[in-house]
Design a protein that fits this description.
Number of domains: 1
Order of helices and strands: HHHHHHH
Strand content: under 5%
Largest sheet: none
């Protein structure tokens, strides 16, 4: 089935790519839930904005009514949690920009249509570790296959894998360091549970909430071991 350069609708390109792979017109498009995801991201952005803007006030107000020494302990614990979650999101902004810029430029150089919208989706997908990168990367490969055939699709796949490897081995350790320290299976499990409970918002906050819980556990363990030190 030939493809024309004018055929730049994402849904149509993805559907025709699936047909090329042996699918049928009755298959559900991988973009079927795009509208729901995008609407959920609006809520996510609003929540994140207020969190970063008002989080410090929230932390202090939560401990204001406590007496010493409990107040000092609560302040220290909440400061650690605030630092972990805030630093996670700030680091993720950098990582998402890195992924979207490199892959977006690569798509443009390869002549893949909709390079800018795909770069935006890659940027948003970076906020959902592992799952987001996989889905947005697959979408870019499908669009490349629909427009340029197997060769272009393989080039985009190599581009996405290369950027992800560079991110995981260089950029992420440099920017995020040992901030999260969660095994990959824990991250994936947290995202699945968060998405099941709260949809897009749950998937978005699952990793930082899990990391904060881990830091809280570390703090409690430190307090228990302190008298024996």
């Amino acid at each position: 089935m030939p493809f024309t350069p004018q055929d730049t609708n994402i849904s149509r390109l993805a559907e025709r790519a699936l047909v090329q792979f042996g699918g049928s017109g009755g298959l559900i498009s991988p973009l079927g839930g795009a509208a729901t995801v995008l609407s959920g991201l609006v809520l996510v952005i609003v929540v994140l904005f207020f969190y970063l803007a008002q989080g410090g006030w929230l932390v202090s107000s939560m401990t204001r009514q406590l007496l010493e020494p409990r107040r000092a302990q609560a302040d220290e614990l909440l400061d650690r949690l605030w630092f972990t979650v805030g630093a996670y999101f700030r680091s993720l902004f950098v990582i998402a920009l890195f992924d979207a810029t490199l892959i977006g430029v690569g798509l443009a150089l390869l002549g893949v249509p909709l390079a800018l919208p795909l770069a935006v989706l890659i940027y948003l997908g970076a906020f959902f570790p592992y799952i987001g990168a996989t889905v947005s990367g697959l979408l870019a490969v499908l669009v490349a296959f629909a427009d340029g055939g197997l060769g272009t699709a393989l080039a985009v796949l190599a581009l996405a894998l290369g950027v992800q490897a560079l991110e995981g081995n260089v950029i992420e350790p440099l920017v995020m360091g040992k901030l999260i320290r969660l095994p990959a299976f824990v991250v994936l499990l947290a995202i699945v549970v968060g998405a099941t409970l709260l949809g897009v918002l749950g998937a978005f906050i699952a990793v930082p909430v899990t990391a904060a819980m881990a830091r809280a556990g570390e703090y409690v363990r430190e307090q228990r071991e302190a008298p024996a030190a």
